[in-house]
Structure formats: C-alpha cells, structure tokens
Design goal:
single chain; alpha/beta; 7 helices; globular; seven-stranded parallel sheet; Rossmann fold; 243 residues; 16% strand
Amino acid sequence: MKRAIITGIRRIGYEIAKNLLQNGWAVGLVYKSSEHIYKELMESFGERVYGVKADLSFWQEAERAVRELTQMLGGVDALIHLSSPYEPTPLAKLKEEDIDYHFKPIAQAFVVMSREAYPLMLRNVGDIKGRIVAFGDWATNTTPYRNYSAYFLAKGALHTAVKVLAKEFAPHVLVNAIALGPTIKPPDFSEEKWQEYVNKTPLKRTVSIKDVVKLTEYLLEVESMTGEIIMLDSGRHVAGECS
C-alpha cells in the first residue's frame, strides 16, 4: 500500500486526499484548523487515514508532523505540500510578520518536511523510492500581481526549493511542482472579482479540479521527470500583464 503525507487539506488538498484514498493509498494529513476535514475522511475511509495537528510556521512542528505520520503510516512514499496562506500585503505596508506568515508555512515547511521525509523514503524498495510534489503559483515566474508581495516572495522561494531539492535528492527521490492558476475562489473574493480573474485566462474558465487531481496522480507515478514546475492555469501565463 502506498503512503502519502499531505499538507493543506482544505479545498484542493481535500480532493487530492480523497482521490488517493479511493485508489487504495494510506494518507497522513497535516492540519492546523481543519480537523473536521480529517475526521470526515477518517469516517469515510477508516484506518487508512491518519492525522496530525501542527502549525507549519514552526520548524520543529514541521519536523514532528513528518515523524509522527511516518510512524503511523509505517513509512512514506509521497509528500504533497499545499499549505499556503494567501493574504494581501501591499508593499508600502509590508511588515516582517507578513513575510514570516507566508514564507514559513509555504517555503520553509516544504524544505524542512522534505528533508525529514527523504531518508525515510530511501528505505523503500525500487530505484525510485519517493516522490515530492509542491503547489506553486502560475504568476510567480511570470507576472506577479500587485499587493501580494509576501505571498509571491514565499512562492518564489518554493519554486526555487523544488529545483534545489530535485538535485539534492536525485536519483532516488523525484521533486516536482504544479503552478496553479485560478482554481477555487478564495473565501474573501467576491464573485465579481473572481470572475475578473478567470476572464483573464485565455480559456475563460477555472482550472479543473479533475485536472489538478490527474496531474498530481501523474507526478506520483512519473519516472523520468524531476525539478519541473508545470503550469496548470487555463493558459493564464501566456495572457500577458495583470494588475
């Protein structure tokens, strides 16, 4: 039985976890305030669901989450990192705590958890012993938009970390990322604002959750790709500048 650790279990993370469970995986969930989602999945899939409450803003908490979940799971084959605060931070008002609030759970936790999982993955059989998938943002490498400076600084570090860890962990652990465009409307977005974002994509539609799940599945099976950041954004990155 394959075993995955997933961070960020609301919204997209929930769909990925549910899909893996439906396909026979055992899943360890890291949550901070989404215990209800963990309990919902546990009620549906029983003993193949494990959970650890942790604040990934803290280095030691990120390490602990991996240690505890791998003990529960009996090892780990995949780490999927979706944890990602998303708050407006206009540059003129940017504070140190804004940087920490985004950077630590997005980029720092990814590196810490990957480093903790790597030697545990090396215990697995086969030439490819583990796979790590991060979730980035389409705009990070192309046209970051205004007023989200802390978020994009963190996502930029995450994208770099994917390439760094891909080289560090080769040849036995593959590290890749999905850079998403507009997928699920953030709670603080009005319908009008969200539709404005969606309309800026060449395809004029949101990224399909089905596509996200299928691409994640692919990255958990791929054998000859590492250090790659795949745009899944309804073509947004080719549409030009945004505000």
